[in-house]
Amino acid sequence: MHIETLRLQNFRNYADEEFTFDEGLNVLYGKNAQGKTNCAEAVFYLCAGVSPRTSRDKQMIRAGESCACIAATAKTRFGTVTIEADIRETGREVRVNGSRIARNADLLGNINGVFFSPGELRLIQDGPDERRRFLNVSISQLYRSYYTALVRYNKILEQRNALLKERDVSLIFETLPVWDVQLCRYAAEIVARRSEFISMLSPIAAEKHARLTDKAEELEIRAEKQYGKTREEIEAKLSEEFSRNYERDIRLGFTGSGPHRDDLKILIGGTEARIYGSQGQARTAALALKLAETEIFKRLSGESPVLILDDVMSELDLSRRRKLLAEIDGMQTILTCTHTEKVLFGKTVHKIRIVGGKIKS
Q1: Mean pLDDT computed over 148-175
Q2: CA-CA distances (angstroms) from residue 309 to 101, 111, 118, 199, 337?
Q3: Sheet architecture: strand order including 99-100
Q4: Element holding 14 (H helix, E strand)
Q5: Which terminus of the chain, N or C, has fewer Cβ atoms within 10 Å?
Q6: Is the pLDDT confidence value at 343 over 70?
Q7: 346 confidence band (pLDDT: 50, 70, 90)
Q8: From CA 173, how far away is CA 113, in angstroms rounded?
Q9: How does pLDDT run across 82-96, given as a tens digit for each residue?
Q10: Domains within the chain, CATH numbers bracketed
Q11: Residue 307: beta bridge partners?
Q12: In this structure, what are the phi and psi dihedrals at residue 183, rounded to the nearest 5 degrees?
């Protein structure tokens, strides 16, 4: 899987530019604040339907314009696919091979993408929201059923939380079991898929981490909570947990348990990385997770995803830069940096120089 062309119109600081990418390593280089990260953001947006930088699409529209347009053509093992996104302040329209899609689920899986930047340290150092987001974005690209279950779960959760704020307690106790039946069905799909993903992620990430650190440290990843092995067991445990906590949830005014509250444990040398890990350890662990994610995509979909590395090399020492380049060999990678000669060690790559939102030869 690789992207052949990308066109940006009124996107961030780009007026109208078209990029051509090679199947291997593509390097976007130039001074800071020229638009390299904006290009990387656009690629991932067409893969996952979300920006890795903002939750508000309208922020990606060029100042003074009313609409931004992104379009890419990619080659996959199933043939050529074209994805276009028109982003307006009032919403967006996405087309796959010329046909408008009504749901984001229909976008997922057409072009798989993995995004990594220095900001991904949040995955290790911040709260559970960042780790759940990592799981949700990654698994959604692999399984549309997961994304659909996630959307429906969140809608039902919103209605359940609204009910918990009612003043009529008898109405709450009478109605909660009705919502819980639906909530548990979708929650079971979410928990089961996460469990499958984490069971693959953990050994691969540990292996990648060992290579990056010359086995100096051991990385361990596991789900914080276990619900059961089968979907029936998961659904039963969730149902029991929801009903057991009715009084607590009513007191709090929201649902205090379920997959929307779960976390991923990341340990380095047996200690929790979020609490005890250094900046360097967090960076290497996050990179190992992302490299493991690319391997999972390859195993499950039959082809490598597009790997997007935004300003990563400047944060790594020479040894880990070399190791990273060895790890990404053979997959399409879009890498941004300021000085190519400092990160590529003479490697032959496709270079694209960016100056003020324009491609310069």
Answers
A1: 94
A2: 28, 16, 9, 25, 9
A3: 14-20, 2-11, 67-76, 79-88, 91-96, 99-100
A4: strand 14-20
A5: C
A6: no
A7: low
A8: 44
A9: 999 999 999 999 999
A10: 1-112+307-361 (3.40.50.300), 121-304 (1.20.1050.90)
A11: 114, 333
A12: -60, -45
For 20-24, which contacts have Cβ atoms below 8 Å and span 24 or more sequence positions?
21/332, 21/334, 21/350, 22/332, 22/349, 22/350, 23/332, 24/329, 24/330, 24/331, 24/332, 24/333, 24/349, 24/350
In sequence order, the 6+-apart residues with CB closer than 8 A to the CB of 15 are 9, 62, 357, 358
In the structure, what pLDDT confidence band is assigned to residue 239 with cuts at 50, 70 and 90? very high
Under DSSP, is residue 344 helix (H, G, I), strand (E, B) or coil? coil
How far apart CA 272 and CA 270 sit, in angstroms, is 7
Q: Of 54, 50, 97, whose CA–CA distance to 72 is shortest?
A: 97
The alpha carbon of residue 91 and the mean position of all alpha carbons in its chain are separated, in whole angstroms, by 21
Residue closest to 42 by CA, chosen among 33, 56, 32, 53: 53
Q: Identify the bridge partners of residue 9 per DSSP, sorted by sequence position.
A: 16, 69
Tokens of 323: 């190791």
pLDDT at residue 229, as a whole number: 86
pLDDT at residue 313 in the model: 87
Average pLDDT score over residue span 132-150: 95
353, 19 contact by CB (below 8 A): no
Structure tokens at 333: 């990678």
What CA–CA distance (Å, rounded) separates 101 from 92?
11
Give pLDDT tens digits for 2-26: 999 999 999 999 999 999 999 999 9
Q: If we measure between CA atoms, which residue out of 220, 200, 224, 42 comes closest to residue 131?
A: 224
Dist CA 38 CA 241 (whole Å): 44
Q: What is the pLDDT of residues 208-230, one digit of tens each?
A: 999 999 999 999 999 999 998 89
Reported as type and span, the H/E element at residue 87 is strand 79-88
Rg (CA), the chain: 22
Euclidean distance between CA atoms 107 and 253, whole angstroms? 35
